[in-house]
Amino acid sequence: MLRLCLEEHGYEVIAAYSGKEGLRKFQENHPDLVILDIMMPDMDGWETCRSLREMSPNVPILILTVLKEKANVVRGLALGADGFVAKPFRPGELVARIQALLRRANMTKASSDRPSFYDDGDLAIDFERRQVYLRGQPVSLSPTEFRLLACLVRNAGRVVPHKTLLTRVWGPEYADETHYVKLYIRYLRQKIEECPKHPRYVLTEWGVGYRFRGSQLAGA
Question: Which of the listed residues 109, 141, 161 is the one where a domain comes to its end?
Answer without folding.
Answer: 109
